[in-house]
Specification:
Largest sheet: 6 strands, mixed
Helix content: 25-40%
Shape: globular
Pfam family, one: ABC_tran
Number of strands: 12
Membrane topology: Peripheral membrane protein
Main location: membrane
Number of domains: 1
Strand order of the largest sheet: 6-7-8-3-9-10
Protein name: Iron-enterobactin transporter ATP-binding protein
Strand content: 25-35%
Distance between the termini: 31 Å
Structural class: alpha/beta
Subcellular location: Cell membrane
Number of helices: 10
CATH architecture: 3-Layer(aba) Sandwich
Length: about 290
């Protein structure tokens, strides 16, 4: 089922067009990841469909209504966005920050009701941040802060959550922790999750649907099998990738890759090496960082 889509949407900064008549469908109650090189329009797409930035033409449609024309509080009850580097007022405790997620549901002078407090406590519990409730946000580690921001998004009680590079600046363990949390929210609560990721293997492992972008356009969209492939990665990242199978998830995995350079793009590897060069090439097992 598709509740959110774009129709020929174009977005630019000044005369620089970032998205050019882009058509995108976001599957409902699924995890969608957006991949692509820097500057391809991934973050711009997220900001456009969540109304953080305006679009020049076309439309973003949610439940049959153009997002640009929706009531702000109504929209905030349907979707939440966690930007790449979220910032809040200094000096807040964790509980105070998470309480900001209740804004769309408040009336009058905005005092928190018992229902609001129950939702806040639930969001803290689900994200494993209950013990931090009275601690200053500034005193937390990067992974802890990221979970607190996700708790604020959950307190908003939206059906859709958008996240722009939620694992940036986190170590491997904390990255996995955040992604497993989002996966659990999708499975147990049927939240629609849309996120920008740089790590191809994380995208393949956790996504039901992947959108691969380049130069403001969609190169390929579909399940991980159809996007994490040699040909698609060649078009999107200009790399020669070896694709294998994750032994734990059976999802496609980028095992290693070389950067394609000029004429080497179409030449066999053996012909690319000079006779006097080493024939053992280094293997890079980290996923592509665009």
């Amino acid at each position: 089922m598709i509740r959110l889509s774009t129709d020929q949407i174009s977005v630019g900064y000044g005369e620089n067009l970032i998205l050019n008549r882009l058509n995108v469908d976001i599957p409902d109650k699924r995890i969608t990841t957006i991949i692509g090189p820097n500057g391809c329009g991934k973050s711009t797409l997220l900001k456009a469909v969540t109304r953080i930035i305006p679009y020049q033409s076309g439309a973003a449609i949610l439940d049959g209504e153009e997002i640009a024309k929706m009531n702000t509080k109504l929209l905030a009850k349907k979707l939440a966005i966690l930007p790449q580097t979220p910032e809040g007022p200094g000096g807040l405790t964790v509980g105070e920050l998470v309480s900001y997620g209740r804004y769309p549901h408040q009336r009058g002078f905005g005092r928190l009701t018992k229902q609001d407090m129950d939702v806040i406590d639930w969001a803290l519990e689900v994200t494993g941040t209950q013990d931090y409730k009275y601690r200053p946000v500034d005193a937390l580690s990067g992974g802890q802060r990221q979970r607190v921001w996700i708790a604020m998004s959950l307190a908003q009680e939206t059906e859709m959550i958008f996240l722009d590079e939620p694992t940036t600046y986190l170590d491997m363990a904390h990255q996995l922790e955040i992604l497993e949390l989002l996966e659990r929210l999708n499975i147990e609560q049927e939240r629609t999750i849309v996120m920008v990721l740089h790590d191809l293997n994380q995208a393949a492992r956790f996504a039901d649907y992947i959108i691969a972008m380049k130069d403001g356009n969609v190169v390929q969209a579909g399940d991980p099998e159809s996007v994490i492939s040699h040909e698609v990665l060649k078009k999107v990242f200009h790399i020669d990738a070896e694709i294998g199978r994750d032994p734990r998830t059976a999802k496609p995995i980028c095992i290693t890759y070389n950067l394609l350079r000029g004429e080497q793009e179409e030449r066999p590897l053996a012909e690319q090496l000079h006779p006097d060069e080493e024939t053992t090439l280094p293997v890079y097992r980290a996923a592509v960082h665009s």
